[in-house]
């Protein structure tokens, strides 16, 4: 029964590293993206998204991916 926890540890690390990579990728994308390329939430939309991504970490990165990045990438192509 002790083998099970040791087998799952590498998978947990892969998930953690994947979420960290997603968080960094979305943060860099948000910083590089021009202010005009964000759906309007009022003034300082870019700053608001940067704060959301930083404060909520991977959850904010997933939200940013579906609400901003995916929509903007589809509309630009």
In short:
The protein is built from 3 helices and no strands. The chain has 77 residues and is an all-alpha fold.
Cα separation of the termini: 52 Å
Tally of alpha and pi helices: 3
Residue share in helix: over 70%
Structural class: mainly alpha
What is the strand tally?
A: 0
Rounded average pLDDT: 88
Q: How are helices and strands ordered from N to C?
A: HHH
- Characterize the overall form: elongated
Number of domains: 1
Q: Radius of gyration, Cα only, in angstroms?
A: 16 Å
Describe this structure in words.
The relative contact order is 0.14. It is built from 3 helices and no strands. The longest helix is centred in the N-terminal third of the chain and has 30 residues, at 3-32. The chain has helices at residues 3-32, 45-56, 58-76. The mean pLDDT is 88. It has one domain.
């Amino acid at each position: 029964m002790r083998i099970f926890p040791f087998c799952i540890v590498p998978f947990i690390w892969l998930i953690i590293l994947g979420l960290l990579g997603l968080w960094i990728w979305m943060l860099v994308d948000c910083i590089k993206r021009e202010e005009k390329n964000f759906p309007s939430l009022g003034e300082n939309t870019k700053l608001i998204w940067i704060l959301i991504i930083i404060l909520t970490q991977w959850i904010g990165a997933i939200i940013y991916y579906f609400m901003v990045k995916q929509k903007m990438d589809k509309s630009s192509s």
